[in-house]
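Researcher: I'm preparing a figure for a lab meeting and need a structural model of a single chain. I don't have an experimental structure, so a prediction will have to do for now. The sequence is pasted below. Please return the structure as tokens so I can convert it later.
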Amino acid sequence: MNTSIYIAKRYLFSGKKMHAINIISGISMLGVLIGSAALIIILSAFNGLEEVILSLYSNFSPEIKIETRLGKTFDPNTPYFKSLHKDEHLFSFTQVLQEKALIRYGDKPLIGSIKGVSDDFLKNKQLDSTVQNGSFTLKNNGQYFAVVGATIQGNLGINVHDALAPIQIYSPRRGVVNSANPLNEFEVRSINPSGVFAIQQEFDDIVVTPIEFARDLLDQPVEVSSLELTYKKGTNLAAVQSKIEDAIGSKFTVKNRKQQNTELYKTLTFERWSIYMILTFVLIIAIFNIIGSLTMLVIDKRKDIAILSGLGANKRMIQGIFFFEGMMISAIGCIAGVVLGLVFCIAQQHYGMIKMGTKTSIIDAYPIAIKLSDFGLVFLTVGAIAVIASGISARLSIKGLDEIKQDL
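Model: Understood. Here is the structure written out token by token.
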């Protein structure tokens, strides 16, 4: 065993008597433990929240979305799109017709979006998890129904259980302007609500209807706003996206989920690193307490330093003793903190000890997602800070070494 490590270990685990220095070292170790545990717990909780948000987002966002670059709509009945529909790897092929419209319920109006979808949209069985009230029903016995976003429901006070109070939707009539009667400039259709869904603000101002209803309202019998594609598990989506882009050319955009909502992914990434930086500053404060405890240890061991120097120990060896002392304190605190954080995360996953505060149809307790990369990040962070702090303390151990010899 390296001599410096052996002596550092003896200083740290000496059981003869408890010095104030040992207590201070223990406090420093406790600080590293708490900081490391907090970093694991917070990052795992954020991972869990991120997975919940992205899973809800994925319920409404396809894996691949095709839109036209010019204009609002395009004809989906081309030979290529028909062949794409027959792809054996495809799980759902949804035609979407979406447009802004005036939504009225009772005497309350609101501007929102009408999203007409084909039957494949309902193949996603996770849609029910987004429903706050009612059900995600678009057709029943030949009758059309609408599922409204939480923002629209909240602003208009829509009652999905009142069959006698339908939603009225107004859309500008194509080719009609400056009519003597302003109402003649709009197409008006009524539809009963069947449910209310909630995901995030971008989606919660949407009314989802069957595409047949949207075509009738918008007087658009053929064209669509977009094609939404979802593939079977195991499909290489990057390769599929590249293949579609090569086939349809520059007249269309082909976006994956991340490209469909870049702001959401940027926000999640920014929040994650912000949390990491805040907790890293807490760790820095905890680990730099080691400098104080090691400085006191240097003062306490002045006689030992002089004796070692007299026996031929060089400055590098003496520095190594206090450097490894600091690294041991940090390593023990970090490992104990990571284990404690892992135990807490597993307990939270199984028992949901920490609740969200309000019961929802989606989650009750704070979600946890444990990632191996987080453990590597914590060890790397603690290790880097510990090297700096221990290096500073090691330099202090040989400062004034000649004066120490003279005093002794």
